[in-house]
Amino acid sequence: MTRTDDTVINKIKHVEDSLKNTLHRVEMIEKKLRTRLLTTENRERLENELEDVKEVLRRNEEKLQSLRKENSKSFMVAACLVFLCFLFYGVYMMISENI
Fold this sequence. Notes:
Low-confidence stretches: none
Number of helices: 2
Keywords: Coiled coil, Membrane, Transmembrane, Transmembrane helix
Number of strands: 0
Pfam family, one: CCDC-167
Strand content: under 5%
Protein name: Coiled-coil domain-containing protein 167
Mean pLDDT: 88
Transmembrane segments: 75-95
Order of helices and strands: HH
Subcellular location: Membrane
Largest sheet: none
Shape: rod-shaped
Oligomer: single chain
Radius of gyration: 25 Å
């Protein structure tokens, strides 16, 4: 039994939401890093966290890119099937009119 959440479109939406949240997190960390009232320990912790969040951001962007590629492949398959249906219908109509 398949779930409705397993569609490519829903996966793309999920990854886009994740990207949005991650970008917001990056902005918040960078804003905190701009303040001069941080201790060295806190600054290092935030810089490490920023690196980790940027890595998650990079992975999500790659995942989004691959999902979009998969979505375009699915569209091309569907378009080819529609074209073949019209082609077969046209050939059928040409043959049946001659009989």
